[in-house]
Amino acid sequence: MERRRVGILGATGMVGQRFIQLLHNHPWFEITWLAASDRSAGKAYGEACKWKLDTPLPAKIAAMTVQPNTPELCEGGLPIPKIIFAALGADIARGLEPKFAAAGCAVISNSSAFRMVKDVPLVVPEVNAGHLDLIETQAWRRESGGYIVTNPNCSAIGLVLALKPLEERFGIESMFVSTMQAVSGAGYPGVPSLDILGNVVPFIKNEEEKMQEEVGKLLGHVRGDHIEMLDAKVSAHCNRVPVEDGHTECVSVKFRKKATREEILAAWSEFAPLRGQHLPTAPEQPVEFDTAVDRPQPRLDRMRGNGMAATVGRLRECPLLDWKFVVLSHNTIRGAAGAALLNAEILARTGRLDKLGVPTGATQGQAVLA
Amino acid sequence: MERRRVGILGATGMVGQRFIQLLHNHPWFEITWLAASDRSAGKAYGEACKWKLDTPLPAKIAAMTVQPNTPELCEGGLPIPKIIFAALGADIARGLEPKFAAAGCAVISNSSAFRMVKDVPLVVPEVNAGHLDLIETQAWRRESGGYIVTNPNCSAIGLVLALKPLEERFGIESMFVSTMQAVSGAGYPGVPSLDILGNVVPFIKNEEEKMQEEVGKLLGHVRGDHIEMLDAKVSAHCNRVPVEDGHTECVSVKFRKKATREEILAAWSEFAPLRGQHLPTAPEQPVEFDTAVDRPQPRLDRMRGNGMAATVGRLRECPLLDWKFVVLSHNTIRGAAGAALLNAEILARTGRLDKLGVPTGATQGQAVLA
Amino acid sequence: MERRRVGILGATGMVGQRFIQLLHNHPWFEITWLAASDRSAGKAYGEACKWKLDTPLPAKIAAMTVQPNTPELCEGGLPIPKIIFAALGADIARGLEPKFAAAGCAVISNSSAFRMVKDVPLVVPEVNAGHLDLIETQAWRRESGGYIVTNPNCSAIGLVLALKPLEERFGIESMFVSTMQAVSGAGYPGVPSLDILGNVVPFIKNEEEKMQEEVGKLLGHVRGDHIEMLDAKVSAHCNRVPVEDGHTECVSVKFRKKATREEILAAWSEFAPLRGQHLPTAPEQPVEFDTAVDRPQPRLDRMRGNGMAATVGRLRECPLLDWKFVVLSHNTIRGAAGAALLNAEILARTGRLDKLGVPTGATQGQAVLA
Amino acid sequence: MERRRVGILGATGMVGQRFIQLLHNHPWFEITWLAASDRSAGKAYGEACKWKLDTPLPAKIAAMTVQPNTPELCEGGLPIPKIIFAALGADIARGLEPKFAAAGCAVISNSSAFRMVKDVPLVVPEVNAGHLDLIETQAWRRESGGYIVTNPNCSAIGLVLALKPLEERFGIESMFVSTMQAVSGAGYPGVPSLDILGNVVPFIKNEEEKMQEEVGKLLGHVRGDHIEMLDAKVSAHCNRVPVEDGHTECVSVKFRKKATREEILAAWSEFAPLRGQHLPTAPEQPVEFDTAVDRPQPRLDRMRGNGMAATVGRLRECPLLDWKFVVLSHNTIRGAAGAALLNAEILARTGRLDKLGVPTGATQGQAVLA
Question: What pTM, to 2 d.p., does this model score?
Answer without folding.
Answer: 0.95
